[in-house]
Amino acid sequence: MAKKVVATLKKEGGKAFAKVIKAVKSPKTGAWTFKEEMVPIDGVQGALKN
User: Fold this and answer.
1) Number of H-type helices and E-type strands within the chain
2) Residues near 36 by Cβ (< 8 Å), separated by ≥ 6?
3) What pLDDT score was predicted for residue 6?
4) Residue extents of the structural domains in the chain
5) Rounded to 5 degrees, what are φ and ψ at 27?
6) What's the CA dihedral at 17, 18, 19, 25 to 10 degrees?
7) Per-residue pLDDT, 28
8) Is the separation of the CB atoms in 6 and 44 below 8 Å?
9) How many C-beta atoms surround the C-beta of residue 39 within 10 A?
10) Interacting residues of 6 by C-beta distance below 8 A, sequence separation 6+
11) How confident is the model at residue 13 (pLDDT cuts 50, 70, 90)?
12) Dihedral, CA atoms, 1, 48, 8, 5, nearest 10 degrees?
């Protein structure tokens, strides 16, 4: 199973965000690629499920 990385990025006075990096295997070639996404802290679990 691919590893999932979550890095928390905090900003004072604003909303906290996290950078979610997922390894995704291409169904066509079988090669692994990385998908990066900035999501609010509240939405991290939802971003990892997709």
Assistant:
1) 1, 3
2) 19, 20, 21
3) 65
4) 17-49
5) -70, -25
6) -130
7) 92
8) yes
9) 16
10) 18, 19, 20, 21, 44, 48
11) low
12) 10
Q: How confident is the model at residue 10 (pLDDT cuts 50, 70, 90)?
A: low
* CB atoms near residue 50 (< 10 Å): 8
1-36 as b/e, with b when 16 or more CB fall inside 10 Å?
A: eeeeeeeeeeeeeeeebbebebeeeeeeeeeeeeee
The tokens of 8 are what? 């928390």
Give me 47's structure tokens: 């971003």
The size of the chain, in residues, is: 50
